[in-house]
């Protein structure tokens, strides 16, 4: 009996030790599958708003703040570990696909390539980045706001977004083509600052959003860019 208990404790310890790596590998698989399916045109993305909707944008920002807060709590509460190969995660993945994939975001400077899903929900941000509801479709006039988690693992999600500066280029492969944006500003704001989502009908801008600092997530790191003609 003691041998069995000891073996179970060892197995549990090994699983807890390997869990972050297993989870990261599974997320990588999900991301690549989404991007490969999208590039192969195996499913159609939902249509996104192409004009700024202030109320929808505010509601989406509120949802995003809730998602970031939940993620921070999950990082702290080690008792909420979930097997990444479980059927629950598979079902959640299906929901993510159904939410609609809009494209792919790439930033060569930080070796970033992520799927962009329609909506900054907890499910979508669990596997990639999300376009906030009420903001413009990439490539369309106005402001396209894309958010992602800032994982504690180096180089994952928007973890290295703080390395981006003025003049750097962000590429977005969207429904209507491939668009490049040049960064003109980076700033840190309060989570409720909805002004970062506003845009002009005469400009095509991109706003990237993640939390900062990584450990406490009390504020939002913002990267602003304008489309290159």
Helices and strands, with pairings:
Layout: H1 2-39, H2 54-76, H3 87-98, E1 101-107, E2 112-118, H4 122-125, E3 129-131, E4 142-147, E5 169-174, E6 177-189, E7 204-212, E8 219-227
Parallel strand pairs: 2-3, 4-7
Antiparallel strand pairs: 1-2, 1-5, 3-4, 5-6, 6-8, 7-8
Overall pLDDT: 78
Report the uncertain regions.
14-19, 42-47, 75-99
List how many beta strands DSSP finds: 8
Written as H for each helix and E for each strand, in order along the chain, the element string is HHHEEHEEEEEE
- CATH class division: Mainly Beta
* Protein structure class: alpha+beta
**Beta-strand proportion:** 25-35%
Q: How many helices? A: 4
CATH architecture: Beta Barrel
Largest sheet: 8 strands, mixed, barrel
Reported by name, the CATH topology is Sortase, Chain: A
Count structural domains: 1
CATH-level-4 superfamily name: Sortase
């Amino acid at each position: 009996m003691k041998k069995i208990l000891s073996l179970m404790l060892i197995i549990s310890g090994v699983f807890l030790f390997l869990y972050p790596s297993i989870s990261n590998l599974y997320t990588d698989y999900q991301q690549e599958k989404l991007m490969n399916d999208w590039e192969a045109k195996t499913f159609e993305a939902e249509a996104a708003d192409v004009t700024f909707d202030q109320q929808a944008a505010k509601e989406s920002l509120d949802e995003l703040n809730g998602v970031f807060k939940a993620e921070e709590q999950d990082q702290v509460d080690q008792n909420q570990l979930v097997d990444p190969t479980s059927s629950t995660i598979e079902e959640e993945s299906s929901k993510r696909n159904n939410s609609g994939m809009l494209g792919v975001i790439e930033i060569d400077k930080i070796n970033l390539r992520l799927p962009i899903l329609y909506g900054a929900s907890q499910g979508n941000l669990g596997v990639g980045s999300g376009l906030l509801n009420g903001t413009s479709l990439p490539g369309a006039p106005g402001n396209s706001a894309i958010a992602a988690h800032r994982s504690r693992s180096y180089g994952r999600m928007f973890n290295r977004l703080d390395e981006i500066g003025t003049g750097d280029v962000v590429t977005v492969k969207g429904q209507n083509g491939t668009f490049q944006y040049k960064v003109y500003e980076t700033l840190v704001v309060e989570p409720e600052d909805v002004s970062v989502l506003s845009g002009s009908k005469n400009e095509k801008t991109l706003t990237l959003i993640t939390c900062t600092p990584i450990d406490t997530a009390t504020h939002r790191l913002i990267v602003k860019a304008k489309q290159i003609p």
